[in-house]
Amino acid sequence: LRPKVDAAWHLHELTRDLDLAAFVMYSSVSGVMGSAGQGNYAAANVFLDALAQQRAASGLPALSLAWGAWAQDGGMTGTLSDVSARRIAASGAPPLTVEQGLALWDAATLSDEPYLVPLGASGNTRMPGEVPPLLRNLVRGTRRAAATAVGGARVAENLTRRLLETREEERVRVLLNLIRGEAATVLGHSSPKAVEADRDFHDLGFDSLTAVELRNRLTAVTGLRLSATLVFDYPTPTVLAEHLVTALLDEERVAGTPAATGTVLPATADDPVVIVGMACRMPGGVSSPEELWRLVVEGREGISAFPTDRGWDLDTLMRGGHGGHGRSATSEGGFLYDVADFDAGFFGISPREALAMDPQ
User: Fold this and answer.
1) pLDDT band, very low/low/confident/very high, at 285 (cuts 50, 70, 90)
2) For the chain, how many helices (H) and strands (E)?
3) At what angle do helices 168-187 and 82-89 cross, to 10 degrees?
4) Domain extents for the chain?
5) How far apart are CA 360 and CA 358, in angstroms?
6) Cβ contacts of residue 73 below 8 Å, gap of 6+?
7) Residue 40 to residue 19: CA distance in whole angstroms
8) Which one of 40, 171, 190, 311 is separated from 93 by 20 to 30 angstroms, measured CA to CA?
């Protein structure tokens, strides 16, 4: 948070007595809509938006622009993977061209509002799934199958019935088409044909976040309780299709499918959550919730010197290369306990990728 938060606050403090014509901050739409895996980045941008509103309330010039993505291949968008770029393009808020961005900038500077969201919009694109909470008062959402008491069971029953009515040799193909379609949606492809049936999900572009999203979508359409590691346990669409056919046609499941009723529960985003188990590994040698609590109670720090079991060249890391290039800015950090025990191969992660991973 500090680069944005501290910098903005210092500028605010140091210029509040000056006769400024403008005080403009660039935040991000991630603070408005949220962004999976970027909670810290979203929070920092929300601070900029709040600071603009505070300054405006105090009679000071202020403008915070929560930009969406730009199409120009540079800056933060220059590091986007192809999968991320496709997902943004398919989100209904496509990346802004330079011309669009400059036009929105001109419009923003003429506004009296201290906080604006310059964002591209495509009326022909609609992300499948639930409407984000922020937008529920703006658009009419569709009723989710999961919002009915037996919605999931009804969907699963229909799919199971379809499989039972399909020749045995064709059943895997039915599930394979379903999986490829859902995977294409998650990855932002325009057609299921882009998802090769016998290619590893990892090679198709799935990471931990998109893997969970695919699991959630398949849970909704099958009614099955599926693991978050689904695409790692069954690494190709074909293998996964075979597994789902077996699970759906399990004799006990078919025999025990409840009859659908019309009872409907209201869709809500604040259903109660029950914690039935807990485990963790944290910096400071913490390998359990009890040890984490002990660290907090005793007021100890989880910061330590660089570990020696990560495969890092510590000498080069501390000294840097030619002219100090690549040198670490610190000699300490918060490192997960015993992370070398992580079985990267089990999850289809290459040794090189494992060394570069940043646990979040």
Assistant:
1) confident
2) 15, 5
3) 80
4) 2-127, 146-255, 289-356
5) 6
6) none
7) 33
8) 40
Q: How far apart are CA 254 and CA 234, in angstroms?
A: 23
Note the pLDDT tens digit of each residue in 300-314. Answer: 888 988 888 777 788
The per-residue pLDDT for 96 is 84
348: phi then psi, degrees, rounded to nearest 5 = 70, 25
What letter represents residue 108's amino acid?
A: A
Length of the chain: 360
pLDDT at 20 over 80: yes
Domain 146-255 architecture: Orthogonal Bundle (1.10)
**Domain made up of 2-127: CATH architecture:** 3-Layer(aba) Sandwich (3.40)
pTM: 0.48
- Of 49, 53, 62, nearest to 16 by C-alpha is 62
Q: Residue 247 class from Cβ within 10 Å (0-12 exposed, 13-18 middle, 19+ buried)?
A: middle
Mean pLDDT, all residues of the chain: 79
Q: For residue 244, with 0-12 CB atoms within 10 Å meaning exposed, 13-18 middle and 19 or more buried, which class applies?
A: buried
**Residue linked to tokens 């198709």:** 204
Other Cβ atoms less than 10 A from the Cβ of 141: the count is: 13
